[in-house]
Design brief:
Blueprint (H helix, E strand, L loop, with lengths): L4 H6 L7 E4 L4 E5 L5 E9 L2 E10 L4 H16 L4 H14 L5 H17 L5 H19 L9 H13 L3 H20 L29 H12 L5 H13 L3 H5 L6 E2 L4 E4 L12 E4 L2 H13 L13 H9 L9
Helix pairs in contact: 3-4, 4-5, 4-7, 5-6, 5-7, 6-7, 9-11
Length: 330
Amino acid sequence: MLLTDIAVRQARPKEKEYRLSDQRGLLLVVRPTGAKWWRLRYTFQGKEKMISLGVYPDVSLSMARDRRDAARRVLADGRDPSAERRAEKEALHHAEKGTFEIIGRNYLATLAKKARIGKGSIKTYKKAKWMLETFIFPALGSKPIGQITASELLVELKKIEMKGLHETARRTKQRCGKIFRHAIGLGHKVRDLTPDLRGLLEAPQVEHHAALTDPRQVGELLLAIDSYTGRFATRCALRLEPLIFLRSRELRSLEWRYVDFEAAEIRIPREIMKGNSCSASRAKYSNTSIARLIWARACQKPGSSRSAVPCSVRTSSSVFIHAPPLDRSG
């Protein structure tokens, strides 16, 4: 039975401690002293565990449920909420010592926390952790962050460049800049050194592909798309792209709820547009475009996905990367 605000407020102390249960392991522990503690009971690797979620009324019923859900997201990712909490406390405690690695790990803990509550990506956290542990912590981790110089950081970034990882070097520099700014937020008297390195790293070589302007070549491309025999979702993406002109990310993130079949419109929310544009995108499309979306929905298994075109970025890109070149001889 679900708890209510009234039930929590009116829970009276008894001679012995007792518990009131909510859903998904959330408990309210009422002590003889009248104190009311929120607890989460869960199982990790076959062992039953319990963690505190705060004291009522400082933590309301709705707040306790939010904290329960955040902890369960950690469990769903295969991690122990109790161990995560200990790691966060240790990182915060050791951050006062001020070495680059300690502050860096405190910064990583904030990334992990954001991922748990749905305000960040676990993929971003893992990538940042890999870059710092592989390239920066071994050389600079033990140094007090205020004693690191721009030239020392540049040496480590150049080592990454020498391996041909130009984009990784650039992104590692960005992460280091965020750690310096994180240290400032913790009260350390440091400054961000990364602006001093502007222009000193080689820019990644980007190969731009010329647009097709010859009608004959455009026709060849459309025929090649129609003859593609790969996965159904990839076929849908390829055949829709020339008709609706969405960015790859927007097409892959397209959900049925964004499509108004009667009005022949697709409305893309602001949060999935490039750069989080200030307003959502809304556009009308041809009958052919809507017909292909109807075809895609009809062929999709019921309840299999909320996505209209469940296709990964690697799949959608590799189709064109590995496709035979078009004849551009004219």
